[in-house]
Specification:
With about 600 residues, the protein is an alpha/beta fold. It is built from 25 helices and 14 strands.
């Protein structure tokens, strides 16, 4: 029988304290729920089945008379990114675990990079808010009590740029964010990581990364040992890592892209290219291959990628995306459209393990709890139910009180005429508008094509209405996006208005911008940052918010400088504003425009200079 205190916690989070529930573990496939007068009786196989049943009771309550469900796949996982500034508190992680368990997830992938304490490595994750041994063990225990496996998701080749800030690790740095293959220090570090996760996690399954190491072997390794084919380097390295993993009894999976990039000339996705037999044979058969795809809509590409993965003979796991990593606003519509396509493909190809990834790229702006519609969609798929928008909306409303249409207001798709296929790109506009420089904004050549003020105001009002109806974790999220829109109402075209007034010598408009618009914008940005901080500190450790202090605070200081410059121009103290004197070069190439929208980070938005 499950521990009573765990069920009590679940009942508290799922708002079912007033119901009488009996449960019995037995040998069956999945679970069944039957209402018997004033009580519910649950029969279940695994604890995750129990919590899925409790989740349904919490949402449908007295509407349930009798039902049974079983998973159509072996594993349904959710990846939590803790490595991009935001390190969720143990309390927040427990709340997330409760949510996931109530939707039938049996695995949580904890993506950490260096955000964990590691034996004999005092600088590993130093000052980054890393999880202590005790915190790791506490989260692992809690997930296990809910019937979920907490899977350590580490990096053993690339994505370790924060690690290399410390001189201690210079000796095992190849180039960029990549470990030095063949270095004794590299394998001592990897051994220490495995020793740590062996002590802190019950799971004997680990994700070892190995993705996006584009320049592997092209830095210190080449200087030391000479040129060597990536194929040979990767084979030798993964064999070494797997030997270490095996020493501690771990099985492993990796992101598959490095093998495909080798075969496909540097790219990951292809509609017609195939893996060579040599590459297929070089992949250890004990390693699971995770095919990650967060944006492809072309079914020829999707089919070829699944077929190519299956050709390797390795276990194939699919990883889709919740699309919460482009700013404060999750791209819910795009995530659901892509999810329907990719999950249908998983069915066609008999994929038995699926992961929904919730990355937090470029600073972790979106709320930890912003991916709920995708969490529901993947859950419906796993249990053989229709993943239509209406089903997602029904479950969403019963769980948190919001319909899917209300939730999608948070997409902040200001360009309503944009096609769904492009909504992932245009979903980045709020971040672009916020950080685009008021004088030398490199995105002004794109923004000048649109008139967006009315759409921003409409979204602000709709967000306000949704905010008023929120009662749970979503409330802070919608407040942050509402105040972001409030600031963008002034900020989005500030550079365009400054340039137009300057070129037409409209001094009254320049004075209004400097004396009225900019001070009001600074006030609104300060309110936005304050609300964002409250959301952050309610979900995460305080570590990492310094990034947003610098970014948003930097924009506020930049606005102060712009105000002084414009007033100096109006007073005759300066005779020219050089940034505004330069005409914008029209960006007429559609593909170039889409590329600029796709590869968007704060570093690429805020300045034309390299800082």
């Amino acid at each position: 029988m499950p521990k009573k205190e765990v069920i009590s916690d679940a009942k508290k989070y799922l708002r079912i304290d007033g119901l009488n529930i009996l449960s019995e573990q037995c040998d069956m496939d999945g679970f069944s729920v039957k209402r018997d007068k004033e009580q519910f009786v649950i029969h279940y196989n695994d604890r995750v089945d129990l919590f899925k049943a409790l989740g349904l009771i919490s949402m449908y309550g007295e509407g349930i008379t009798e039902l049974s469900q079983s998973k159509r796949i072996d594993h349904l996982g959710y990846l939590v990114d803790t490595a991009r500034n935001a390190v969720p508190t143990v309390k927040s992680m427990k709340e997330l675990f409760i949510r996931l368990a109530s939707f039938g997830y049996d695995r949580v992938y904890m993506y950490m990079e260096d955000v964990m304490q590691v034996e004999n490595e005092p600088f590993y994750g130093h000052l980054r808010g890393r999880y202590s041994f005790d915190e790791l063990k506490e989260m692992d225990r809690y997930a296990d009590e809910l019937g979920m496996e907490l899977v350590p998701c580490i990096q053993t080749l690339a994505h370790l740029n924060c690690l290399f800030k410390w001189p201690e690790y210079a000796q095992c740095n190849d180039t960029a964010d990549i470990l030095l293959i063949d270095s004794d220090r590299t394998y001592t570090l990897i051994n220490n990581i495995f020793s740590t996760i062996n002590h802190c996690f019950k799971s004997k399954h680990v994700h070892i990364g190995m993705d996006e190491a584009y320049l592997v072997g092209r830095g210190k390794h080449m200087d030391t040992y000479g040129y060597e084919e990536k194929h040979d380097l990767l084979k030798r390295h993964i064999d070494m890592v797997m030997n270490i993993a095996g020493k501690y009894g771990f099985t492993a999976e990796i992101w598959s892209d490095m093998y495909f990039r080798e075969a496909f000339g540097g790219g990951y996705y292809s509609a017609d290219k195939c893996l060579s037999d040599e590459i297929c044979e070089s992949i250890p058969k004990s390693v699971g291959l995770v095919y990650w795809d967060y944006w492809n809509r072309d079914e020829r590409v999707i089919d070829n990628m699944f077929e190519s993965h299956i050709k390797t003979g390795n276990e194939v796991i699919f990883a889709g995306g919740a699309c919460k990593w482009m700013g404060w606003n999750p791209s819910t519509e795009f995530a659901l459209v892509l999810g329907r396509k990719m999950l249908a493909a998983c069915d066609r190809y008999g994929i038995r393990s699926v992961i929904l990834t919730a990355w937090s790229d470029d600073g972790a702006e979106a709320s930890l709890f912003s991916a709920l519609p995708s969490i529901i969609q993947y859950s419906l798929h796993a249990y053989g139910e229709s993943i239509s928008d209406s089903n997602v909306s029904d479950a969403l409303q019963r769980y948190c009180g919001l319909t899917l249409d209300q939730y999608r207001v948070g997409d902040l798709d200001f360009l309503a005429e944009s096609r769904v296929e492009e909504s992932y790109l245009f979903g980045k506009l709020p971040k672009i508008m916020l950080y685009n420089d008021p004088l030398s904004g490199m995105y002004d050549s794109i923004l000048q094509k649109y008139e967006i003020t009315e759409q921003i105001v409409t979204h602000k009002n709709r967000l306000s209405a949704v905010y008023d109806e929120c009662t749970g974790s979503e409330k802070k999220m919608f407040e942050v996006m509402m105040l972001l829109c409030d600031a963008l109402e002034i900020k989005w075209d500030l550079g365009l208005r400054l340039r137009a007034a300057y070129h037409s010598k409209d001094l009254s408009s320049l004075e209004k911008i400097a004396k009225i618009d900019i001070p009001e914008l600074i006030r609104r940005l300060s309110e936005f940052k304050a609300a964002f901080y409250i959301q952050w500190i309610s979900e995460n450790k305080s570590n990492g918010f310094q990034t947003h202090d610098l970014r948003i605070g930097g924009m506020i200081e930049r606005l102060n400088t712009v105000k002084l410059l414009v007033l100096s121009y109006l007073n005759g103290e300066v005779t020219e504003i050089f940034e505004l004197s330069e005409d914008l070069v029209p960006l007429d190439n559609v593909n170039a425009e889409l590329d600029m929208l796709l590869w968007t980070t704060w570093m690429g938005i805020h300045s034309v200079y390299v800082i």
